[in-house]
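# nightly structure sweep
# worker-07 picked up a monomer target from the shared queue
# config: single-sequence mode, recycle default, output format = structure tokens
# input follows
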Amino acid sequence: MTTRLKIWFLAARPKTLPAGIAPVVVASGLAFSEGVFDWFRALVCLFIALFFQIASNFANDYFDYFKGSDTPDRLGPKRAVSEGWVSPKAMLIATLSVLAVACILGIVLMIVVDWRLVFLGVAITVFALAYSGGKYPLSYHGWGDVSVLVFYGIVPVVFTYYVQAGVFSLDAFVCGLIVGFASINILVANNYRDYTTDLKANKRTTVVIFGKTFAEYFYLFNGFLSVLLTFYFLKKGFVFTVVLSSVYLLLHIKTWREMIRIGQGRELIPILGKTARNTLILSLSMLIGFLIGTVFPI
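# output follows
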């Protein structure tokens, strides 16, 4: 991998990308269980989710640099703009370019499925930029966790299911909540690590607003709530969807205990990656549960 390619690879924050993959995996598993799975539409949704997330990560890199939250004291992985690896102009162009690719893919779905998906595309694009940009950046005013629940949980799951099934579903909404609450922990792990520098930069994350002790129990609660919500599918006969989620819960508790044991410092850096891994494992567990429940109904 060339140095330039490696810089852009790191700027995309690959350890966070499971948050974009998980919703599509779960929604597609649900669609398969109902006999409406469409591999082409699911694949397009996957690429849209990944490109939008990468664009959001690029935008964060760009806007956080100008807002002063990416200081030399920051404990997390290096940021491309603040380190001088990429110019602000290049990062802005990259952000808009990746958003453009995602929008082009969205147009494909509009043509194939429903023209009204244009409104969804506009909403997601605005979110990708408004999360850390604009006069009222969501991540700087305590709305990060809600944003993740909506745009990395409910919205991608519900609409990935919709483009395959052609209808909205309560089952898809519950799946969105499951993925969303697990994905919130990726943000919590990030903000828990960056508590001190965020406080200095007046970046009012929920960790800064309510404190690190709150964040520790919030993290633990989100994981348990995700698994608890899987019990909704027992009445649908998907026993293994619930059973396999226990694998995620064990990993979740282990990661949580490691996070609070470390407490602060650079040793917290791997927690974000492990949390993202756990979220992906939860989505794959649900997928396998849906597949087993469909082939071997109980």
